[in-house]
Amino acid sequence: MVKIVDHGTWALREEDEGLHPVGAEPLWSESVYLDFAAEDGSVAGYVRLGLYPNWNRAWYWACLVGRDRPTVLLADNHAPLPGPDLSVAGEGYRATHEVTASLRSFRLTLDATVAAVPGDPARAYEDPAGAPTTSLGFDLEWTTVGGAYPYSFIPRYEIPCEVAGTIRVGGEEIAFSGHGERDHSWGERDWWQVSWLWSSGRLDDGTSFHGMRANAGYELPWPCFTVPPGGEIGHREGFTATSAFGEDGLPAGSRLLVPGLPMAAVPVAFAPVAMTSPDGLTARFPRALCRFEAEDGRSGYGWTEWHQPPGWRGHPWG
Fold first, then answer.
1. Which intervals hold domain DUF7064 (predicted)?
2. Quick check: is 84 in a domain?
3. What is the dihedral of CA 257, 69, 36, 207, to 10 degrees?
4. Dist. CA 270–CA 71, nearest whole Å
5. Of 221, 220, 142, nearest to 184 (Cα)?
6. Rounded Cα gap, residues 80 and 305, in angstroms
7. For residue 176, what is the domain's CATH number?
8. In what order do the strands lie in the sheet with 251-258?
9. pLDDT tens, 192-240?
10. Is residue 2 part of a domain?
């Protein structure tokens, strides 16, 4: 039995692992994230499949990064909408996404030709046409650790996981074993209005954590959780963060205040993506593999994102 945190706002069910009825809002979407990181930060990556049925497209992003490893990145914001089985195929790639046991395990396969991002990670925002390419393949499975965590105020849930399988990049094959998180959300999301910070990772003693806050102009009990080694998700509220950014908009780092677990998030490798709205606005999404350094001396790796819509520097980042 998978533990599900109960907020009393909406009830997460095993059926929620499937697709949901499409809302009428033009920017209604449904998305699945899958990320992973080796315990030592040597290799990491993430995949996002976002469905925009009222816009007649999907977004598909996949990357591989790591300490002392070049970033390779696929960012297709004009992917065809997949069917109910969530398999997707675009120019130069094919991927499958399968819930193998509801709230317990999820399998991803990917076979792709992707761009190799040279030098400055902000160049990933540019059109990759003409950039060097390489092959990227994933056959990975996410296995739940500690339970499932639904947000209290929107239909979204996060699941800390162990991740294992095979990664292929260029002529290299990696037998991967590490940790990560997967999430699933649905509803209206306007990427060109609200900025946010989202972070998850695991420390070297086996503690997993997650936190999220949006810069919406008002405060909420922003969601967060911790999972002790071998234990179950413990619900917490009141996540806060402060961040510093360079002139190029890439974050230099953040201080994350998970209640009882303050820490620094230090970017190690970026895999940024840009997206354009139906009316031509551009938002940037600098997602990064981070090293987390807790104030009590523990450390670990995972992912952090700092979403940046137009005008984001005027938002109350703290």
1. 191-310
2. yes
3. -40
4. 7
5. 142
6. 25
7. 2.40.370.10
8. 234-237, 223-227, 208-215, 195-203, 299-307, 287-294, 261-270, 251-258, 240-245
9. 999 999 999 999 999 999 999 999 888 888 999 999 999 999 877 889 9
10. no
